[in-house]
Design a protein that fits this description.
By secondary structure, the protein is mainly alpha-helical. It has one domain. The protein is 76% helix and 0% strand. It is built from 13 helices and no strands. The two termini are 33 Å apart.
Length: 292
């Protein structure tokens, strides 16, 4: 497994901790305000940390950063809107269904088809996701439709970042992504009448974690990693997100995983292993033996 793939797994582990935290924060902070604060913190942190590297902007950097930022903003905003009426585990499951969109979007944008190992990985991971969620059922209420829109937006983001990350450095376009996310959040806040949550009621510890670790760090690492792996493989790796969410819920909130969830998790992990190991195993077993 490459460093880029390991980085994406780390991202999924961090994302897995955010669903329950976001849903809890939404009890005191409106969705748009939560996104605005989260991305503002991330923008300030990245600008301060990488101040010396934010020079000599090129037009393609700005174009790539703003373009990806739109999809990032759409994804996070629709996700928190959905979380108002969808459980954290359901949100994690539906968000991870971006894996089903990625191959089609990659074909439309890049005109590339997934290799056999990636296709098998997608099928196993989707089957695992469906089984993972079987106990909760799958109905399309408004919250789940919002979250499905989030999954589609993140699928586009994966493919677009894969392309843009190869021609633009990760730091500048990451900064622009979080600036767009903050601007979109504050636009919705002021369009809705302004900030509503009193400062003392805001869970600042959660917001700092979401802004610094789950946004600033993740955006930079994700932009770097997606340029160094295929879009479809990245989608398969992202399917592990609900597994990490469930582990977090079991460890800190006393929830339990059902046999179906455990079986679904095993299928998702099988999809990851197939997509990762298909090429080296195929090369090993199809290699011609050398003759003396």
């Amino acid at each position: 497994m490459s460093r880029a793939d390991l980085a994406l797994l780390l991202i999924c582990a961090i994302w897995g901790t955010t669903f329950a935290l976001l849903r809890d924060a939404l009890h005191t902070v409106p969705a748009a305000e939560l996104v605005a604060l989260r991305f503002t913190i991330a923008a300030v942190v990245l600008a301060a940390f990488y101040f010396r590297r934010l020079r000599g902007w090129r037009p393609e950097w700005i174009r790539d950063g703003l373009g990806i930022g739109v999809w990032v903003a759409v994804g996070y905003i629709t996700q928190v809107i959905g979380l108002r009426t969808v459980t954290a585990s359901r949100s994690a499951f539906i968000t991870s269904m971006s894996i089903a969109f990625v191959p089609f979007i990659a074909y439309l944008v890049l005109r590339t088809r997934p290799v056999m190992g990636e296709s098998l990985g997608v099928l196993l991971a989707v089957a695992g996701l469906v089984l993972f969620s079987a106990d909760a059922g799958f109905s399309l209420n408004p919250g789940e439709l919002w979250t499905l829109a989030c999954a589609a937006a993140f699928a586009v983001q994966i493919v677009v970042t894969h392309v843009a990350g190869k021609r633009s450095p990760a730091v500048p376009i990451s900064v622009l992504q979080v600036v767009v996310g903050a601007a979109a959040g504050w636009t919705l806040v002021f369009a809705g009448g302004g900030a509503l949550a009193p400062a003392r009621a805001i869970p600042w510890g959660v917001l700092l974690y979401l802004g610094i670790v789950a946004t600033a760090l993740i955006i930079v690492v994700q932009t770097w990693a997606l340029a160094r792996t295929s879009s479809v493989k990245a989608g398969v790796l992202y399917a592990t997100e609900p597994i990490f969410a469930a582990i977090f819920a079991v460890s800190f909130f006393g929830e339990r995983m059902t046999p179906r969830e455990l079986t679904g998790a095993a299928l998702i992990l099988a999809g990851v292993f197939v997509s990762e190991l298909w090429r080296p195993l195929r090369a090993r077993f199809t290699a011609r033996p050398t003759t003396a």
